[in-house]
Amino acid sequence: MRWWRACWFPAIIRKKKITLIWTTRFFSKPGTPYGVPAFDRLRPEHFIPAFEEGMRQQKQEVNAITSNPQEPTFENTIEALEYSGELLNEVSAVFFNMCETNNSKEMNDIAERISPKLSAHSDDINLNEALFKRVKAVCDMRERLDLEGERLRLLEETYKGFVRGGAALPLEKQERFRAINEQLSTLTLKFGNNVLAATNAYQMVIDNKSELKGLPASLVKAASALADAEACAHIALVFEEKGVWDRMK
After folding, report:
1. Is the whole model's pTM more than 0.90, yes or no?
2. Are strands 27-28 and 243-244 parallel, antiparallel or unpaired?
3. Closest residue by Cα to residue 75 from 163, 151, 165
4. Rounded to an integer, what distance in angstroms lies between the CA atom of residue 199 and that of residue 88?
5. In the predicted model, what is the mean pLDDT of residues 242-246?
6. How far is the CA of 220 from the CAs of 115, 170, 207, 216, 224, in angstroms?
7. Which of 77, 152, 186, 188 is packed most tightly, with the most Cβ within 10 A?
8. For the chain, how far is it from start to end, CA to CA, in angstroms?
């Protein structure tokens, strides 16, 4: 269930992995080695329908949990919740990773549109009173369930996630909590874009050849060639967060 919240929350366990490619109308297996997403076939216009379908499916899965007439158990509540949102997890993982590695104005526009919706979807789950009652009921009897290892950890983390997600807040404070989360989702995205823009714009100009000592000759040659191409009198090395990039200006 836990997709990414400030871009959003990672899953703990999965019985199976469903990797999909997106079209505007339907979803199908990509037929790639190891089931990795078919990135060459993904287009920005595929993501909004995929996000919306993923949220719709998870809402149905959550409703099935809360409407279950049986008493809450680890299997019909905690495990069922953890397995929910499989499609949304897939879409979110691919989309936000592509935003980080293949950024564009079109992808940024989609992120700005979808982030508040994802925040609201997350709050709809975390602030679902009937769902939290079932989660709390299972957590309260954990001493009698004889859970070990991953299952106990999953139970504890699920309950903790709901509490930290506002489930224990009084009703009169939950709307304010929702508003803060929506604002945070927008500001987090904006901050990330600002950092990316600043990183891309940064360059170090070196006008003293002695400062190039120790750099590979091929790197210096590439930088000089680009500096010449741009009619620059100096050699400028472009740095990113992970170090010296292999693109020089």
Report:
1. no
2. unpaired
3. 151
4. 30
5. 39
6. 42, 62, 12, 7, 6
7. 77
8. 44
CA distances, 7 to each of 122, 156, 244 (Å):
11, 22, 27
Q: Looking at per-residue confidence, does 4 or 65 come out higher? A: 65
- Tokens 């079109």 belong to which residue? 106
Beta carbons within 8 Å of 38's beta carbon, 6+ residues apart: 21, 30, 31, 32
Q: What is the pLDDT of residue 230?
A: 62
Q: Are the beta carbons of 54 and 4 closer than 8 angstroms?
A: no
Which segments of the chain belong to CATH 1.10.1370.40?
Answer: 21-200
User: What's the token pair of residue 44?
Assistant: 């920005």
Half-sphere exposure of 45 (CA within 13 A, CB side): 3
Q: Do 185 and 115 contact (CB within 8 A), yes or no?
A: yes
Decide if pLDDT at 138 tops 60: yes
Query: pLDDT for 57-105, tens place per residue?
Result: 999 999 999 999 999 999 999 999 999 998 899 899 899 888 888 778 8
Q: Evaluate if residue 114 carries a pLDDT over 90.
A: yes
Other CB atoms closer than 10 Å to residue 105's CB: what's the count? 8
What is the SS3 assignment for 4? strand
Cβ atoms < 10 Å from Cβ of 129: 10
